[in-house]
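Marked as duplicate of an earlier ticket. Keeping the data here for the record.
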Amino acid sequence: MYDGGLLRVRRSRDRLLEEIRDAKFFAEVPEKTFSRLPLPPVTEEIVSAISSASHADFNLVFLAWLGAVALANHGRASVYLPGAGIKSSLSLLLMVGAESGTGKSAATAEFLDFFKKIDEKILLHYEELNAKIAVDNRVRARRMRELCNSYARTGNPEQYEEMLQVEKEKKTKLLPPCFTLFELTSAAYSQRMAFQGFVGRIDPEGIPLPKGAMDQLRKYWSGEPHAQDRISRGQTVSYDPAIIDVTFTQLGPFQALLHDQEANNRGLIARMLVYRHLPDEIVYRHERYPLSDEIRQRMENVLSRIIGALDAVHEKACFSMELSHDAEQFWKSENELRMQELRDLEELWKIEAWVRRIGEHALRIAGILHLAEYSDPEASPIKENEIRLAFDIVDVFAHHMQICARSTADEREQACARDVALWILEHNVEMFIATQLKQRLKSSYRASEIDVALYCLEQHGIIASIGNDITLRRRGRPRSCEYRNLYFQPILI
């Protein structure tokens, strides 16, 4: 049973008291999620099935799916707007804030298992290649010794030329590319990028982005060429770097990064998508059933198709996906409209750099979903409805970014709501008048703050207003002077 304006689950008085003492109980609950959006059929089918089978929140599974598709792409495909001459990679920096026990591991398990199997296949393949290289190099070494001995005796120039050719044909051991990253350091990011041209991570364990890698991640996301000087191999350059970093972390580290001034100043926050999940937010519920072999195979087929040939992962045969004419026109108009709407929001104007990139975020999301949906994504242009959906998805991220941007400022409001709720429940009052409550708590809070707290408690289904006083207060919401405690417990004699 649900109760209250925000449809929170009805619980016992003791349970409610326990939850309210948690500082996060009155944190703003996001209203916008992905579960009600008309997602493409392939994405909807796979995400719904995994969500139902793993008992994981649909929204968390969807975010993990975005990361999995982007990682499978590993920088191969990009989105191109012919008219504007804009080309955008499908790099993705996504951070999800969720408390422990909310299904972060369950949401990512199927995808991580898949990439683990892919890495194992790549490793076996490269072991075979390196074994052949080792044998060929031993044959070349023997031939080189024969040529050296003969040339030392004869000085034959033809033998000298053959020695040069044998030396050129000598091969070095190949390092297998890898889709999973475990060492979270700036050096590890740099080495991996220099070697294979992409760095990928889907982390359900709550380890945030390495602080020392902020500039690298920003540059990778923007597609700036990455160069690294190596003693053994000289300079290695990656001209189309791709970064896919999807992190599920607890709300504490999540909020800390979002309010990190350095991360904001360096432009990292502007390039991130954030989602703030709360355990009691309204989620789309599916009938629960085991994940079928058919669905798992379908997921693996989609991701394998996007990856391409395993022996050519490090080569990244790149291609572009174009927008149809109608899609591009819609993108241009919608981008301007959405930017103006978001600039008007009190919290988001402070991070205007993020607002300026909503169009690019939409392009990347449209490209990711297009890759998953079509067997030949290059041959099928991205349509207007795909761009429209991508902007709706970005709108959800904007909503969550807005909540995160104002969360610090609302800490006092949350504290006031918590103290008011505790006073009402602990004293077990059945009915009370607002002015009475304000008088009792006047040493701690202003009357206007009490009004906001009472409204908050109404929305959480803890109290109900009585009476006809509709005097306006902060945020334009009506005030009632008299309230009923919906959790009042009569004393049994």
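See parent ticket for discussion. The radius of gyration is 29 Å.
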